[in-house]
Amino acid sequence: MSILTFLQERAGDIGIALQEHLIITVSSVLLGCIISIPLGILLVYNRFKWLNSAVFFIANLLQTIPSLALLAILIPLLGIGLKPAIIALFLYSIMPILRNTYDGFQSVDPSVLESARGIGYDAKQRILKIQLPLSLPYIMSGVRITTVYIISWATLATLIGAGGLGQLIVSGLGTNKLELIITGALGAIVLALLTDALLGWVERMLTKKYGRTSSATTA
């Protein structure tokens, strides 16, 4: 069977697997952004440095847990399917987004913040109009790295019944069909490359738009 014939015959299954993979990835990364970006900002303004150390220690600890072990731990708590897969990958997404958000805010020149304070900006305005725009390259870099990793790790989600492109790989191994294995693996690779390129474009557009705005504001 040629690869083109195989793709035509299994187009429906491949489409479903791709859709499931996207749902897992997007849900995990969105949850990571919703939790990690505000948390990173809060840590910048937190006066208790021991709390910063504790938060980063926990986030880093989550990164060290093997993915299969984490999935196994979540099965008794959440069952099988999409929910435990999304929660597990969300936990993996916290550290890079959190760290890059924190570092991005810390990298803003204090003199810029002083200038903003001098023209009457309160803390909220300084965060939204100065620090956040200037931190976007850091934050988007964290999101890009996280997304690429999550796309790769999501192939393991099929082991707990969440589907995705990993289902094609596992099915190929079970039936000794190289076409399935190659399709699943290449699908994840292409998806990661396309997503990284798309997020890179979004990063450039946001940086160009909001970076210019923040610079003009403090000029």
From TrEMBL:
<comment type="similarity">
    <text>Belongs to the binding-protein-dependent transport system permease family.</text>
</comment>
<dbReference type="GO" id="GO:0005886">
    <property type="term" value="C:plasma membrane"/>
</dbReference>
<keyword id="KW-0813">Transport</keyword>
<dbReference type="GO" id="GO:0031460">
    <property type="term" value="P:glycine betaine transport"/>
</dbReference>
<dbReference type="InterPro" id="IPR035906">
    <property type="entry name" value="MetI-like_sf"/>
</dbReference>
<feature type="transmembrane region" description="Helical">
    <location>
        <begin position="21"/>
        <end position="45"/>
    </location>
</feature>
<dbReference type="Pfam" id="PF00528">
    <property type="entry name" value="BPD_transp_1"/>
</dbReference>
<feature type="transmembrane region" description="Helical">
    <location>
        <begin position="65"/>
        <end position="92"/>
    </location>
</feature>
<keyword id="KW-0812">Transmembrane</keyword>
<keyword id="KW-0472">Membrane</keyword>
<keyword id="KW-1133">Transmembrane helix</keyword>
<feature type="transmembrane region" description="Helical">
    <location>
        <begin position="181"/>
        <end position="202"/>
    </location>
</feature>
<protein>
    <submittedName>
        <fullName>Osmoprotectant transport system permease protein</fullName>
    </submittedName>
</protein>
<feature type="transmembrane region" description="Helical">
    <location>
        <begin position="148"/>
        <end position="169"/>
    </location>
</feature>
<dbReference type="InterPro" id="IPR000515">
    <property type="entry name" value="MetI-like"/>
</dbReference>
<dbReference type="GO" id="GO:0055085">
    <property type="term" value="P:transmembrane transport"/>
</dbReference>
<dbReference type="InterPro" id="IPR051204">
    <property type="entry name" value="ABC_transp_perm/SBD"/>
</dbReference>
